[in-house]
Amino acid sequence: MIVTECRRGGLSLSGGGSPLASALRQMQTRCTDCGACLTNCAFLSQHGTPGTIAARFDFTSPQDRQIAYQCSLCGLCAAVCPEKLDPGALFLDIRRRHVEDGDFEPKPYRSILRYEALGRSSLFSLYALPRGCDTVLFPGCALPGIRPAVTLEMYRQLRRFVPSLGIVLACCAKPSHDLGRTAYFQTVFGAIRDRLVRHGIRTVLTACPNCTRVFSQYGEGLAVQTVYQLLHLHGLAKMGTATADRAVSIHDPCPGRDDGRTQDAVRNLVSGLGFTLLELRHRRQLTLCCGEGGMAGCIAPEFSGQWVDSRRREAGGRMLVTSCAGCTARLNRVTPTVHVLDLLFRPEALARRRLSVPRAPFTYLNRLLLKLRIMSKRLNA
Question: Is residue 116 located within the same domain as residue 202?
Fold first, then answer.
């Protein structure tokens, strides 16, 4: 790979014909430095526009490539870019190159990588696939950890509409995907996908926006639908045991910023329970990251803190409702936040400002207990 001087005076991967070199050239030439992406991004506000970053840093250097890990990969920059550029995709490509070159240092991400590995281990994973099952619930890792009873009740309710519904407890390896550990991700997620396909599974119901994105991008023929769409379709909000005439705001998870159908379903579920919805300034496609995106907080906690504080200020003390367990845990530390499934299956959430969110090691214990409860129903294939 040839390292050449860029038009702005910096060094970058601009020689050769690699996709990364091409992406860097495009970012340098097409970015107009308009600043639209700087307004709500702590990372870009610190380092400059994507075009400036592409030109200023030498991405043949392992040290300079580290900057890509400070980006939350939330996608807001792409959503507001008038030139339709996607800086997050570029930073993900740089991460992948960093891993391919053998320069990735896992130590800062030790906790999340251990979490991911346990999620796919025989201790925590479970494939409960009844005879004749062609649809499974894939709740992800975080929801069973913070809301095991809610997860089980959701499964019970969904089986009213899909009697042969199975459930899979496993980690989709999204952390490794976002860290650029492509080969590992393909191995782990590929094994999950192939096992489901061999069993005759055709549809995956997801509760986690990260899992939704992974299955949508890499499911190779598996149909994907979020549980929120299905719950709304079958009128679950009308079956709720309580309602509340109270104003709340929806926090849309950034992995699903383009998933309008799920955003609509969540809003319909919440309003169906009697809540008044007051929309946040940053919502839907323009939503803000909760601070956990891209594992940026592992090496740039100051940026993560600014993102979560921005959401706290925008909420203005109103209760936030979200469809992401990770966002629930993160935001609830700074402002009252509940999961939309809390409102459906934990009606006491309507009367309380804040539901506690357990942390490790209790989240691991919750996942194990949930697994044992499902196994006791003899649903394993």
Answer: yes
